[in-house]
């Protein structure tokens, strides 16, 4: 395998004609992966940092939006955290795949979330979100589209945005390939899990993409298990700090 450059091989999940049963099985397994491999923890950590370092007046309720929301598990976890912290918040999930939104609405039944079937770029917010985030969404795009995305997220958030996505690394690739072959029942997870790593990023690629998007205030941090965390603030104190 060539780990020196990003793969642009299409993932099965990006096929708009997949039946709901396959999407549903995929979303259930991804929910487990996000929980066990730190994706949910990383999102909570990023939101805590953004809110702690924001020096302006917080609007109530806080408006949080996820682009590429998939099955809605990230929003549900953040909603629980906000509730536990007594932070009034409203949540919006955007995904272009109608079956993903169908699953998210069923999974988040009882929550007052807004789910929108759309290309994120075509959404017209009546009120801009305070915080926008994406989780395992960026690796689905080519570099040129990511530059546009990072700029869009900055222009459409009031406080800041955060991203978590995959580190392209040999150990990450072979580990997820073995684990999914043993434990997964979803052909999407078996195919797309290892491929997602090949479509992931090394440190300098993320830095260059952010700079190409005109983003100068950001933090990029590596975390287990082979994840990158990006935090961008409009009024924070970060200035191209790149720890970890």
Q: How would you characterize this protein structure?
A:
The model is unreliable at about 235-244 (pLDDT under 50). About 45% of the residues lie in helices and about 15% in strands. Strands 3-2-1-4-5-7-6 form a seven-stranded mixed β-sheet, sandwiched between helices. The longest helix is centred in the first third of the chain and has 17 residues, at about 20-35. By secondary structure, it is α/β, with parallel strands linked by helices. It has helices spanning about 20-35, 40-55, 75-85, 100-105, 145-155, 170-185, 185-200, 205-210, and strands at about 60-65, 90-95, 115, 130-135, 160-165, 220-225, 225-235.
Distance between the termini: 26 Å
Uncertain segments: 237-244
**How many individual helices?**
8
**Overall 3D shape:** globular
Give the H and E element order.
Answer: HHEHEHEEHEHHHEE
- Supply Rg: 17 Å
Percent helix: 40-55%
How many strand segments? 7
- Beta-strand portion reads 15-25%
Strand order of the largest sheet: 3-2-1-4-5-7-6
Helix/strand-derived class? Answer: alpha/beta
Please give a quick description of this structure:
The protein is an alpha/beta fold and 244 residues long. The protein has helices at 20-36, 39-53, 73-84, 98-107, 143-156, 170-183, 187-198, 203-212, and strands at residues 62-67, 89-95, 114-117, 131-135, 160-166, 218-223, 227-233. It is globular and about 50 Å long.
Task: Identify the notable features of this structure and list them briefly.
single chain; 244 residues; alpha/beta; seven-stranded mixed sheet; 7 strands; 43% helix; 17% strand; disordered C terminus
